[in-house]
Amino acid sequence: MNFSKSRVAIEVTSQQIKQVKKWIYQCFEIDEEISISLSQLQCSESNCPTIETVISVMTNPVQQYKIYKKIADIEYTDVSQLF
Predict the structure, then answer these.
(1) How do residues 32-42 score in pLDDT, each as one tens digit?
(2) What's the pTM?
(3) How far is CA 51 from CA 41, 59, 61, 63, in A?
């Protein structure tokens, strides 16, 4: 079984990244001093989505969430449904 995932270079603008992060701050009601990391990953397994976005909220402990879309395709409802 191959669990290797790799970062994927897919077109995404800085504005799209900022928008998704803004929604995360709003939905999670976290302080804007807490860092958020977004990573697009590709999975080669047949049962995995082609692309997923991993969201890491740098609290202690770190909170991680996945949205099975490219960053550019994420909408507010995707973020709000993480709860």
Answers:
(1) 999 999 999 98
(2) 0.83
(3) 6, 25, 25, 20
